[in-house]
Amino acid sequence: MIVNSIIKNKPYLAWYVKDPGKLSEESILEHVLNYGNWDDVQLFIKVKGLNETAKLFNKSLKNRRTNYQPAIKSYFYRYFNNHV
Fold it and tell me: Three-state secondary structure along the chain?
């Protein structure tokens, strides 16, 4: 299972994206963390692995612009730093 299948199976996570199948892994992670539930987050981690998910998250934080909600950004920053 690849991470793109998460968005294909749950299109409401990227409801405003014209073609969710073309999203990058970083963007899919952003949508899952912002709009998904805990099961969606765990599914992403199961597919990608905890270390790789944390790397994607931390890489996206270095971008000039991210769309993480402040509470989501704060929570998962701590979550990944404590679990990796």
Answer: CCCHHHHHHCHHHHCCCCCHHHCCHHHHHHHHHHHCCHHHHHHHHHHHCHHHHHHHHHHHHCCCCCCCCHHHHHHHHHHHHHHC
